[in-house]
Amino acid sequence: MENHLQTKDWGLGLNGHLIIAGPCSAETPEQIEKVCLDMKKENMIPHLFRAGIWKPRTRPGSFEGIGEEGLTWMEIVRNHLNIPITTEVGNAAHVELALKHKVDVLWIGARTTVNPFAVQEIADALKGVDIPVMVKNPMNPDLQLWLGALERLQTVGINKLAAIHRGFSDSYDKRFRNKPNWSMPIHLKREWKGMEVINDPSHIVGNRAGILETAQRAINFGLDGLMIETHHDPDNAWSDAKQQVTPAALKQILSKIDFRETAGSENPGERLNDLRTAVDHLDDQLLDLLQERFSMIDQIGAYKRENHLTVFQSDRWKYVMESRTQKGVKKNLSEKFMKELLYCIHEESVKRQEKQLREADPVKR
Ligand SMILES: C=C(O[C@@H]1C=C(C(=O)O)C=C[C@H]1O)C(=O)O
Q1: Which segments constitute the Chorismate mutase domain (predicted)?
Q2: Residue 206's domain spans which residues?
């Protein structure tokens, strides 16, 4: 993946774990002012002020955002807090208005990220514009869509990029408003080196009580910041009333979080270095063992070819799966991990053996 500029290099004075706060929606100039004043009173000034101007709602009829007028109120934020502001854009018209009103950072919402046509429209509207853009994960846990949206922006020349992890729609799991699926942001960071991912616990949990726990987990996993919806009077907010917190509550939450640092690869510390060296040796041994196992698998494959046996042997596979899973669980490895690992190994075994059969006895035409 191509290089891009990280938040610290966006020219907005951002550094460390990024904190983005502000109301779900801009409602009135008074509301914006009150949120700012409460932030000031609590000395709880975020790095970026967020406010939704256009709200993609599931069904029509609820508050769909105040529209362009709300952008003029962002001056209030600048006057009181002197911090950059960010808002969501969902189409080219939104982009044009956000640029006209000098919004500092744009974000693309989950419902837009799922649609490559919409993302491309936004990207095209941003051609030649130097503005940072954050891309929320798509509604469904599809890493390629998430990466694709970031790539579309990069292709038109946007190089100030970040991602936002807001969780994934899952109507069966009632514990979350949007299930976190932590492997997704971690995969994204693995695939796109240096891509910062900001966690949005407000949309993941959907209520005030769970925000701290989810935010702490995000930091534990190594995510790079938090976006938390903040309102002076959350109960009476026009949207997302249940999940917004007051600036005072936000301050409390942030004071309880243990902000962990990523250990840089240049100078990780002696103890960590020793442990990592031990892991390097163990991984070498694992690879030697795997190589040996697959050489046995190949010998079994040769036997199957000579004796006209099928590659997949369900009784043997059932035995391997169950016995190894049991042993693994006794060694404190999770059942889920054991099953995934064994599926992966088995898939490789049968593919290798099938290839042996295919190469030895090509299909007669
Ligand atoms: C190796 C074999 O072939 C396949 C691969 C297995 C494995 O990886 O352990 C088990 C059963 C078969 O589906 C075998 O038949 O023993």
Answers
A1: 266-357
A2: 7-256
